[in-house]
Design a protein that fits this description.
Layout (H helix, E strand, L loop, with lengths): L1 H9 L5 E4 L11 H11 L5 E4 L4 H5 L4 E2 L2 E4 L5 E5 L9 H6 L3 H10 L14 E2 L6
Parallel strand pairs: 1-2
Antiparallel strand pairs: 3-6, 4-5
Length: 131
C-alpha cells in the first residue's frame, strides 16, 4: 500500500486515507495516534482524514477496511471495493494478486474507462458510531 501511495502521489494523484471507526471501537485513532501510525507504516498518503462519526465512510457505504475508492478526473467514483483479488497479507500472495486500484488508476491515466468498477472489499469491519 505504501509503495502504491508513493508511486501515484508522485504522479500527481491525491491519496487520502480515512479512519471512520467510532471512539471506543476497534480502528479508532486520535490525531496523535494517526500520526504515529503513518510514521510506523512509512505511509505516504496525501492526507489523513479522521472520520469518527463515520460521515465520509457511510457516504461511500464502506463496510470493511480497507475500502478503496478511486475518483476520476470528473469527480466521479470510477472504482470502489477491495484493493485486490486476494484476501491475504502474505507477501507472496500480494505479489501475484490482481490489484484493482492499480488497474483503475492506470486505465484512467491512459484515458480508458475502468474495466472493473466495483468489487467487494474485504478485511475488518468498520465500527461506526451508533451502528
Amino acid at each position: 500500500m505504501q509503495a502504491l501511495q508513493r508511486k501515484y502521489t508522485g504522479e500527481g494523484d491525491v491519496w487520502l486515507t480515512i479512519a471512520s471507526s467510532a471512539p471506543g471501537e476497534q480502528g479508532y485513532v486520535t490525531p496523535s495516534e494517526a500520526k504515529a501510525d503513518l510514521a510506523r507504516w512509512h505511509a505516504a498518503p496525501t492526507n489523513y482524514l479522521l472520520d469518527p462519526n463515520g460521515i465520509v465512510g457511510r457516504l461511500y457505504d464502506a463496510r470493511a477496511t480497507p475500502t478503496m475508492v478511486v475518483i476520476n478526473r470528473d469527480g466521479r467514483v470510477a472504482y470502489i471495493g477491495a484493493i485486490d483479488d486476494t484476501p491475504s497479507t502474505r507477501l507472496a500472495d500480494v505479489k501475484t494478486a490482481k490489484n484493482y486500484v492499480v488497474a483503475a488508476l492506470d486505465e484512467i491515466a491512459a484515458g480508458k474507462p475502468v474495466t472493473i468498477a466495483a468489487t467487494r472489499a474485504y478485511g475488518c469491519s468498520i465500527k461506526y458510531t451508533g451502528a
